[in-house]
Design a protein that fits this description.
single chain, about 375 residues, mainly beta, 24 strands, about 40% strand, globular, binds 2-acetamido-2-deoxy-beta-D-glucopyranose, Sialidase, signal, Sialidase_sf
Length: about 375
Amino acid sequence: MFGASFVTLLLLRGTSAALQAVSHTRRSVEPFGFFNNNTIYQTSGNQSITYPRFAEAQDGTIFATASLSGPSPSYFPIFESKDGGASWKWISNITDTQNGWGLSAQPALAELTEPLGGFEAGTILASGNSWSKNGTRIDLYASTDQARSWKFVSHVAEGGPPNTTNGATPIWEPYLLTYNHSLVCYYSDQRDPKHGQKLAHQVSKDLINWDPPVDDVAYDEYIARPGMTVVAWIPPISKWILVHEFPRGNSSSYGVNYPVYYRLADSPLDFRLSEGLPIVINNNTAPNASPYVVWSPSGGTPNGTIVVSDADRGVVYTNRFGGATDAWEEHATPAGATYSRAIHILKDHPDHLMIFGGETFDDFGKGLLTPFTATVVNLTEILAN
Ligand SMILES: *[C@@H]1O[C@H](CO)[C@@H](O)[C@H](O)[C@H]1NC(C)=O
Ligand SMILES: *[C@@H]1O[C@H](CO)[C@@H](O)[C@H](O)[C@H]1NC(C)=O
Ligand SMILES: *[C@@H]1O[C@H](CO)[C@@H](O)[C@H](O)[C@H]1NC(C)=O
Ligand SMILES: *[C@@H]1O[C@H](CO)[C@@H](O)[C@H](O)[C@H]1NC(C)=O
Ligand SMILES: *[C@@H]1O[C@H](CO)[C@@H](O)[C@H](O)[C@H]1NC(C)=O
Ligand SMILES: *[C@@H]1O[C@H](CO)[C@@H](O)[C@H](O)[C@H]1NC(C)=O
Ligand SMILES: *[C@@H]1O[C@H](CO)[C@@H](O)[C@H](O)[C@H]1NC(C)=O
Ligand SMILES: *[C@@H]1O[C@H](CO)[C@@H](O)[C@H](O)[C@H]1NC(C)=O
Ligand SMILES: *[C@@H]1O[C@H](CO)[C@@H](O)[C@H](O)[C@H]1NC(C)=O
Ligand SMILES: *[C@@H]1O[C@H](CO)[C@@H](O)[C@H](O)[C@H]1NC(C)=O
């Protein structure tokens, strides 16, 4: 879900604002504990936080960022937590050094788990959408010092100016995955005249040179706009899952206009060969827009739990039956709804479900100053409710 008015707001709201200090600690919040709405960063002035993203390094350090509207040129602020999200430090900003357009929105983070293209394991990679009235560019940046400093690595892809009307040619919403000694960059693509929008990916073996785009989700129906890829690995069934939103003109499905679909595949490069499946709960309700997906071994053997988040509600949608279409459930959480709400399972604490918080799509631009937050819930407990 990425409305024209939202793009306009992001484009118009450029000016720097006084930025407030990060809340470093909060007494009620214990390291690696469970807590609600723990502040990562308090917005001020005309700032708004949406589209949170993160990477957990091998040593358990969590790096978090988000779309931060307000500052001009825009940049991605990077926050670090070494205690499971209890305390956060603002450690750096990723700035656009190439286009003069800023790093406008839609960040992505990943850690290199093996050396690639002259970069050591432990390198933190970042992408995002840099745009102006002249175009959209998905660029790759890297940090070799634990996200303290950043350098430009390569342009992945370029499209026309930001414009969500079918027929315009921008690109959007990168998602990074390290796989098979390469880096995969998924994104939403309006450049193909056969599709209002489709989902594609490109692969690089050296972080510099990118193979041509390969489709992941592309429907014959022109007005279909599959968007906002997120991918996760589900060990017990040896499958990859891709979730995306799936608006088709004004059509509505179970009361929502941006239903969430998923595909399961043996290889994360072959989603184009899999069937698209809707997430529907009890033949009654469905998540809406900008989904995120993670997997946890908690929640029951053998299949653990697939957890999906959407844009509109505080709940999460879960599946403990290997992604069976009739086995989706809905469970309450204390977190609020957030536009493109990322969720995370802490690597060494599989029952810790982290839910990042920020502004909702509908409240964006209203000056509510909703902070960037982290909530951590006990997945086992919320599954029981
Ligand atoms: C953003 O805030 C700054 C002051 O912090 C102000 O100068 C500017 O006009 C604001 N921009 C918009 C688009 O509201
Ligand atoms: C990030 O950039 C903002 C705006 O220029 C600045 O106020 C802040 O100190 C920077 N933070 C870091 C950690 O560099
Ligand atoms: C857009 O392109 C025009 C023509 O090349 C150039 O003059 C202008 O500076 C560019 N604007 C931005 C924001 O890149
Ligand atoms: C957005 O794209 C549509 C379709 O190509 C075009 O008609 C429209 O003029 C574009 N909008 C802007 C502001 O350029
Ligand atoms: C990994 O990439 C190599 C080519 O570099 C290819 O031969 C191999 O089939 C790939 N393996 C998987 C599992 O995709
Ligand atoms: C959606 O509905 C509006 C108003 O009825 C109409 O103008 C528009 O063309 C429709 N969009 C699509 C893609 O069908
Ligand atoms: C799902 O709900 C619809 C509308 O209430 C009903 O017609 C249909 O039979 C239901 N399907 C199943 C499999 O229960
Ligand atoms: C686990 O997932 C697999 C693959 O979807 C499925 O065949 C199996 O029935 C599932 N087991 C349980 C107990 O849900
Ligand atoms: C957390 O913040 C959201 C607003 O982003 C709010 O809707 C929700 O109720 C808060 N949760 C708690 C437990 O305070
Ligand atoms: C999570 O909840 C379950 C069920 O109440 C409990 O057994 C488990 O100890 C909890 N995990 C932690 C880390 O407290």
